[in-house]
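Task card 7
Instruction: Convert sequence to structure tokens.
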Amino acid sequence: MTQQTSTGVVHLTERTPIVTGPEMLASLVPPPQFDSATFDSYRADDAYPSQEAAKETLQRFAGRSEPVKKAGLFRRAPKETPMKPGVYLDGGFGVGKTHLLASVYHAMPSRRKYFGSFIEYTALVGALGYRNTVDLLRGSDLLCIDEFELDDPGDTMVMTRLLGELVASGTKLAATSNTPPNALGEGRFAAQDFLREIHAMSESFETLRIDGVDYRQRAIDGSAVVLDDADYAKVVADAAAAGTASDDAFADVIRHLAQVHPSRYIRLIDGLDLVGLRDVQVLTDQSEALRFVAFVDRVYDAQLPIAATGASLDTVFAEEMLGGGYRKKYLRAISRLNALTHSVRGGSGEA
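Output:
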């Protein structure tokens, strides 16, 4: 059920969204900012040759490679090495992995294809059940999985089993993450079964390393924008006059996220033009921090500006968390929070 408001101020804490399985399946498409992403619009950085190399390999994977030269009278035509059923983009934040993944999705001449984050696929299994999810996805030509991060051994087992069944039925896979497949979960879980699942899954993927500089930081200061109370009120009021803005105390939002399944976070921000967070505080609870990361991912996918007061959002995760097993998740979220606060119009955060 979609919750939309035409104009005015709303409160995230008053939204209790419900998303059905079929709605979740229908929503498995690239985020709006990648609606028109193509290989041609991807601008590889000449300083990092791995970007162009990855692009060329992905074009071949999607069926857009240059035609193989025909054999001459006395020579054989060169043979292309068969590709694995999956490609895996490993790289840091903001180097264009999602753009390339969306380019694969758009370029693949497929009748049935899906694009979603890891959490969206696991949420689909949770909503429909494992066997129903397999039946729905079986026969699909392509499955794109963004931010393949395995934080829970149960989700990992389910996802690797699901992917194994789909690959066996002919589905191609394309995935991104910040850790190569054979290192996923490393240092987090010691269970041998878990590790065996990870390594077995990696055999289905050809890993493409992409180096580069986070594009979100190239023209942005190192800190998120913090507004004073007057500027915050003005930004929220202006956004509410032109569309719809949310306005909540940060602590209230954090508590509310615990009451809403992460698969429904996208509905929390449905119809919004700006997210307002008052009195941001440093998070010290791991569960709260991870839920906030999932929420930030959805806000970033929707490209919604964030107006905030209190602590700077680039300091929202306690220092001890940044040294733990979820470091890469937190750093990615900080990168996105910086970009979203700099996209605010009005007040001292005007960009």
